[in-house]
Write a structure and sequence with these properties.
- By secondary structure, the protein is an all-alpha fold.
- It has a single domain, classed as Growth Hormone, Chain: A (Up-down Bundle), CATH 1.20.1250.20.
- It starts with a helix and ends in a 14-residue tail after the last helix.
């Protein structure tokens, strides 16, 4: 129950983060934004979120995760309220960036609770279930907000998000406990910032994990979080249908992440699945970009498969954590997550800069520009091939 409540914050984070894709058309019209302005506003959440990942991870390793996560959810709730009142691009960017700061403790916090409360041999499964929460939150943000817009405007949706954040904050404060009975802080001795950065950034496995997650998570948040919606519209779908279709990427993620975690823990292998996931998502992304659109069902199937392959990326956290000494848990999760989210934020901003400031572009322009996602996925595949394999519950010893 403690781990489940912590994971609710991850679901809420993705509602805030991914829901912008559903309301972007309304926000763009209301605030009179250009395509570049919309991209910057969308990416501002992920930029601050990613920059705060390492500080959040270090804080979680040192202080009480219960209160840090409760405070983070409360900050998100307050920021959501003010975002619903925004009347200019500048104020909207500042408020959405504040959301990213508050949400920064969600994923590493849930991961730390999993490391403390879940059997180490089931860590990949626990992280897979957290990633399932990612997918659920993203679908609620995408398709859920899309249908809420039929009965209220985007500002009303933000009010509901604010109330939801307040409920999540109260649940965390009331229900989360930072560590199980008998747990000693000596089991995870936190290390100074400089030492933590030195150890992690000199660890080949961590660096490769960051590259891998930058490519796969960058695609998930950059493509699935914004640009696939624009691509589907360029293929001829109306905005409502495009958002619903895009949601299938995250349905695939929610399905595959816990299954992959279970398979990996049972098999005792990480690397082969990482390679399959990154290579498969590269092929699926190419089909989404350039494959013929036969009908709605074919489009849904391809997007679902792409999401299922991207769901494999959750194993990178187990692979990295199992390559480091104890005491680096939340910091390592935060650092790898930062790489992925920073790349995702940049990949929301870069395409409109490459295309120009015109709001609508022909399909060919979208296809050519969005090949940037194929490039980062190929880099992720190379990184996966270069990583060494680890084992569930591996008790790392220095020098191994």
């Amino acid at each position: 129950m403690i781990w489940f409540i912590g994971t609710l914050f991850v679901v809420y984070q993705l509602m805030l983060q991914n829901g912008f894709g559903a309301i972007s058309e309304s926000v763009t019209r209301d605030l009179s934004l250009t395509a570049v302005g919309t991209g910057v506003l969308s990416g501002s959440f992920l930029i601050t979120y990613s920059l705060m990942q390492l500080p959040a991870g270090l804080a979680l390793d040192r202080f009480n995760p219960r209160w840090l996560m409760a405070a983070g959810a409360l900050i998100c709730a307050i920021a959501a309220w003010f975002f619903g009142q925004a009347d200019s691009l500048g104020s909207a960017i500042a408020i959405r960036a504040a959301m990213g700061v508050g949400a920064a403790v969600a994923f590493p916090g849930a991961g730390l609770l999993a490391r403390r409360w879940i059997n180490p041999a089931q860590f990949a499964l626990a992280m897979g279930l957290i990633d399932c929460g990612f997918g659920i939150g993203a679908v609620l943000g995408d398709s859920g907000f899309n249908h809420l817009l039929t009965v209220m405007d985007w500002r009303g949706v933000l009010v509901l998000l604010s109330i939801t954040g307040l409920v999540v904050s109260v649940l965390i404060a009331a229900g989360v406990r930072s560590a199980p009975p008998g747990w000693s802080s000596e089991e995870e001795i936190p290390v100074p910032l400089r030492e933590a950065l030195t150890v992690m950034l000199r660890n080949r496995q961590v660096l490769l994990g960051m590259i891998f997650y930058a490519g796969t998570c960058g695609t998930l948040f950059g493509f699935g979080g914004l640009w696939d919606i624009k691509l589907q519209q360029a293929f001829g779908y109306d905005p409502v249908k495009a958002v619903d279709l895009n949601s299938w990427i995250f349905v695939g993620l929610a399905i595959s992440a816990p299954i992959v975690g279970l398979i990996s823990d049972s098999w005792g292998r990480r690397k082969p699945l990482l390679v399959i996931g990154s290579l498969g998502s590269t092929i699926a992304c190419a089909v989404v970009l350039f494959g013929p659109v036969f009908n709605d069902l074919a489009t849904i199937l391809v997007l679902l498969i792409q999401g299922m392959f991207l769901g494999v990326n959750v194993l990178v956290f187990a692979t990295v954590c199992e390559s480091l000494p104890k005491g680096y848990g939340a910091s390592a999760i935060g650092l790898v997550n930062a790489a992925g989210c920073l790349c995702g934020g940049l990949l929301q901003m870069i395409p409109p800069m490459m295309m120009g400031s015109d709001r609508w572009q022909p399909l060919e322009v979208y296809q050519q520009t969005l090949t940037i996602f194929l490039v980062v996925l190929v880099l992720a595949t190379v990184a996966a091939l270069l990583m060494h394999d680890t084992r569930p519950g591996w008790d790392h010893k220095p020098g191994t």
